[in-house]
Specification:
alpha+beta; Ribosomal Protein S5, domain 2; 5-stranded mixed β-sheet; 4 helices; 12 strands; binds adenosine-5'-diphosphate
């Protein structure tokens, strides 16, 4: 443990170059995605990513509420990102705070740029993201979950949107920050990518990086997003691939003597 003033700062990169959870700098946390996890939503997905657990549900295209938001030439995309009170160490005050509102807005805008909204005028596509357990990178986990949920709902999109946060920890650029790295690192850079075109549709930054570090972070994030994209596609394949029915077990027609 190092220390800055009175605050104890954990050593984020060990002498072997590995991070506190043993990962290499360019390594993602384990990611598992289940498409279609909820029955009542039009589309849904559950994401476990490191210690993050996030559920996304999509409804629509459906009637717009409130009505005055309706647009005659396209669907509107609404998103509500919410962190459960029990999702963090110290109970979070329930309800939409400024952070949740900001995250909801940037996620809705990211999806607006890939959904073919003009195909569904006067409707709303509603995305609900519930963070059940948080360990940094929840807006990215929410984007990934919502993206699979939108595909599960059959909403036409240019592409899925993989997302990941890159950051600077202990002076090094690292992929997919966990909580301690987010808290004690020098910078945090969440991003979302349209894989086919390479276009970024979400890019935020907290902290400081120089131009060269930013450029390396973007490269590392794009590589990370492409790996996440593969897991997203596999989750949809698992949901929709038809496996041949197993032969019915034979049942004896007569009671054994
Ligand atoms: P992200 O989750 O997208 O990385 P932030 O960088 O704002 O977003 O948050 C980093 C982490 O800090 C969250 O994933 C969560 O673990 C924690 N956190 C955020 N808001 C709160 C809060 N109100 N109370 C406790 N922990 C929080």
């Amino acid at each position: 443990m190092g220390s800055v003033g009175a605050k104890e700062v954990p050593q984020l990169i060990g002498p072997d170059g590995r991070r506190i959870d043993g990962r290499q700098l360019d390594e993602l946390r384990p990611l598992r995605i289940v498409a279609g996890a909820l029955h009542r939503a039009d589309g849904s997905a559950f994401v476990e990513w490191g210690a993050n657990k996030v559920m996304a549900a999509v409804y629509g295209p459906r009637e717009v509420h409130p009505r005055h938001l309706q647009q005659n030439n396209k669907a509107i995309v609404q998103c509500r990102y919410n962190m459960a009170a029990f999702s963090v160490d110290e109970r979070k005050r329930p309800g939409l705070d400024r952070r949740s509102q900001e995250i909801s807005k940037v996620i809705a805008e990211a999806f607006e740029s890939v959904i073919f909204a003009e195909e569904y005028p006067r409707t709303s596509i509603d995305i609900y993201i519930e963070v059940l357990q948080a360990n940094a990178g929840t807006r990215c986990a929410g984007l990934v979950a919502a993206s699979v949920a939108l595909a599960d709902a059959g909403i036409p999109m240019v592409d899925l949107l993989p997302a990941v946060a890159v950051g600077k920890i202990g002076g090094q650029i690292a992929l997919d920050l966990r909580k301690e790295e987010d808290n004690f690192g020098e910078a945090d850079l969440p991003m979302a990518l349209v894989p086919q075109s390479g276009r970024l549709v979400l890019l935020q930054m907290e902290g400081h990086m120089n131009r060269e570090e930013l450029s390396r972070s973007l490269d590392l994030g794009v590589v990370g997003c492409r790996k996440i994209y593969d897991v997203m596609k596999q989750a949809l394949r698992d949901r929709y691939s038809v496996t041949p029915a197993a032969p019915a077990p034979s049942v004896p027609t007569e009671a054994p003597a």
